[in-house]
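Archive maintenance. Older records in this collection stored only the sequence; we are now back-filling the structure field for every entry so that each record is complete. The fields below show one back-filled record exactly as it appears after the update. Entries are processed alphabetically, and DUF4302 domain-containing protein is next in the queue.

ARCHIVE ENTRY
Title: DUF4302 domain-containing protein
Organism field: Pedobacter steynii
Length field: 448
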Amino acid sequence: MKRILFFIALLSVLISCKKTSYVAKFDKLPQERAGEQIALVLNSLTSAKDGWIGSLPTAKGGGYGFYISFDKDQNVIMYGDLTDKSAAEAGKSYFRVKQDMGTDLIFDTYNYISMLNDPDDGVLGGESKIGFSSDIEFIYDHATADSIIFIGKKFRQPFKLVKATAAQKAVYEAGGYKTAIDKFKNFFITNQNPYIELGSGAEARKIGITPNTTNNLDIGKRIDFTGPGADGKISSASEKFNFTLDGLSILNNGLVFQGITFVRLNWKDATTLAMYDAAGKEYIVKNSIVPLIPLSQLWGTKYSGMLSEFKTIYPGTSASGAVILNYFHNNLQPNPLNPYSFNYGRINFVWSVVNKRLTINAHTSQSGGASTWVTSSSYSYTTDDKGVYKFTLLSPPSEGYAGKIILKLHDFILANHVTFDYYIDNGVVYGKMASVEDPTIVMTFMLQ
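Back-filled structure field:
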């Protein structure tokens, strides 16, 4: 009994003892460490006296470049490669750095970065309600001596900022970004079949390169490589890019094509463009008088099909071709052929090369394209050695809302021998479909 009482007394003494030897695992409170990181990020952004050069891929669209200057009063001055105006005129807004899921950089008034998130598809051509699936809030990831990297809070795209030089700042402020972009675009207007060579001598292979400089959601602000491998088989690869003062920078750590990682396309001198790989090797951009690979050979590899977007007649379409396409587009509103009111519609050509089949899908929508009804027709085809197609009906336009208004295109496909070729306008490559029997009938489409 005495032993039990002894242990009870000892335990009470131990419980009452003060823990004077406790040492905290961290020497600062969480809120203190958060405050220090906010100060670190804020000071990094505002202390770069010549501003930052930024790059940002979007989750659903292409890539975009920016020049951004931050000051201690939370003002932002910005240029961007979205439009001619954004490249030449400074946009002004505000920013904040705060603690949330991490240390966040927030653009809390509308600016050029906000345009990529704009739910109005008429602003830049993004998808209705979600734009290009891009962020206006970014979480700090890490920094180096000359750069700082954030990650988009929702769409997880890397927003990279690299310190600008005084010379670069002066060019941006003088409107030089637009001048640089225009020079780049003009090179590809003049040189319509650009390529680089892989290998050397008799083994050299011509690889076509195609930068799409538009804001098209599906194919814009991407650069494509297409060409034969060592085995002769055609392959294709694409990656997002943003414009720089010297050319373009390929995003997402570069474009891998036939085992080589290409990272940028820059001016070697005043008139010569060169591609550079991750190892720094140079590939001069040359031009072919004729297309390197006929369009008909790229169905199912580089291109899955063609698109006629809502009420859009693309450059190169003839008057008689426009009549055929507009029979669909202009009859989306109520009329004797169609009793319904549609606020969106498009025509898609979808190729199945293995089965030698073409499907034409006519989409109609009353939700601005968020959801569509599809009227389909399908055709088998044969081609000759000159690339002339002859189509045979497999199934007519299915019962659907567009069954009658797609008939002119359906009739054209069956009544004509058809050729497919490229049509290039202002640096944009379209697909051209023309009649052999009546060369005045020409229709152009976005390539997909």
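Update note: The first helix runs from residue 2 to 16. The chain has nine helices and 26 strands.
Entry marked complete.
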